[in-house]
User: Fold these one by one.
Assistant:
Number 1:
Amino acid sequence: MGAAVEPLMGKVLISETEIARRVEELAAQISRDYQGTVPTLVSVLKGGIIFLTDLMRKLEILHEIDFMSVSSYDSGTQTTGVVRILADLSRNIEGKDVIIVEDIVDSGLTLDYIRNMLLSRRPKSLKICTMLDKKARRRVEVPIDYVGFEVPDEFVIGYGLDYQEKYRNLPYVAVMVPNE
Ligand code: IMP
């Protein structure tokens, strides 16, 4: 309905099978690295939720989850890196092992802001796990400990990632091709 431009799906960049296999590998690695601890997985809404829920079901260690919601102050289409907290974590992370679980790291500005904010709360450790890494677009270096896939500098949708809030439900990652 309406004048909304429906994007074509473009080509599938990462299939459902490839995602499932990589999630299992990452979960195995995290389970090994955090053996004997109970990390808190922090998901940044909304894009990170699909990855978080898949990842946690493959973890073989006890863990907790928590959520944050942020919005970037944009200047036009560019992220400025100044972030407004819309919803904060429900628990104190001081002394805890924290893993930020992200959908994609693009410029890195949002993640850098969140990372510094969480570090100021004095967790025992803080690592970052992202499903997708759009390295070519990085504007600030953020240490990333676990990466699912590196993706080219194109706009991707699916597996939590949206185009105007749609298409998060696609079970694969696709390059979005606007419908002319
Ligand atoms: P950054 O601060 O530039 O790293 O922005 C990261 C956020 O921008 C991600 O958490 C996504 O919500 C969004 N984003 C970046 N690239 C894409 C994309 O290709 N598709 C959909 N959302 C994206």
Number 2:
Amino acid sequence: MSSEYSDDVKIKVFGDKLESQALQKGCEEDIEKHCRRCIGYPTMRTMNKLKKYGMYTLFFMFIFVVVFQFSEDVRQPAYPVFKRSETNHTNRMIIVVTPTYKRMTRIADMLRMANTLSHVKDLHWIVIEDGNKTIPAVQDILDRTGLPYTYQAHKTALGYPRRGWYQRTMALKLIRSNTSQILGQDHQEGVVYFGDDDNSYDIRLFTDYIRNVKTLGIWAVGLVGGTVVEAPKVVDGKVTAFNVKWNPKRRFAVDMAGFAVNLKVVLNSDAVFGTSCKRGGGAPETCLLEDMGLEREDIEPFGYEKTKDREIFVWHTKTSTPNIVQSKKNQTKPVPPPDTFGYFVEV
Ligand code: UGA
Ligand code: MN
């Protein structure tokens, strides 16, 4: 029909009376094209279309967001993740206490630990800096885990050995004074674990062992105490002794990495890491557990069930300080710190 009229005629025709007739005849498209050419704006019809389809789009986006939000647990990642899903019937909060201090390898150590812990649900990480202030690079690592965490600075007080004792004491006080904030709204129970920043942790240590500790859980630790593995000796499900080289007569002959205590045990006592621990021959673990009123009968051993190929879920590794090559010139002058080329390294 358009070929029969010049543009002027069409303007006149649509402008005057024929728009409604055209609509009735199903000629909307002509009106549409014509009006867009005349006035350059979308017509009412276009606006209505936009409104209609816009509403559909919004509706489907809303459904997508809702489904996505609630399907997290069933969604499978497209790549393999070094992780086991938890089948526990408890959501006990795992409270990990980590003393840390400035050294060349600290960021690397904390990064490894953060990568491991970030796979564990329902975990609050308490990190205590042995220093006067918290360090932004450490805080940044903690932020990126997505975990709830507390990061405070408490420099080792006079009389305490510089081995994390004072920092753990401060953490115990914090746990006792801020229990509900640390547990969070969805948790009534918790387990406290002292995880140093330089060990190597299997995710299953948290999901399969620590989460299930009802009073005092104990398990094997690799590369510790001058031997390849320290472990509780278990007979009929009970710990009767400890397979350790160093000081086996201790009531709890276990490294810090080899036990966790239920939060109720911590809250029912005021035990802390004192300035000395004679019963442990210098090691604080047995003193703390004895001061908490625990006995050998309270121990729940983990990971001993198999008769061979038992797995170790925590290793007492140590990151060695790298040998920094210094220039041989001007050896009489004090050695300047190595150049980091603008990168952050704690030297
Ligand atoms: C071993 C045990 O694994 C520790 O749990 C125990 O506290 C320590 O012995 C001890 O003798 O008391 P080890 O590997 O020799 O640990 O010690 P580090 O790993 O160097 O230190 C333990 C924790 O304290 C670490 O998280 C570390 O970052 C921290 N630390 C160490 C400080 O906060 N300040 C320091 O000056 C040194
Ligand atoms: Mn260590």
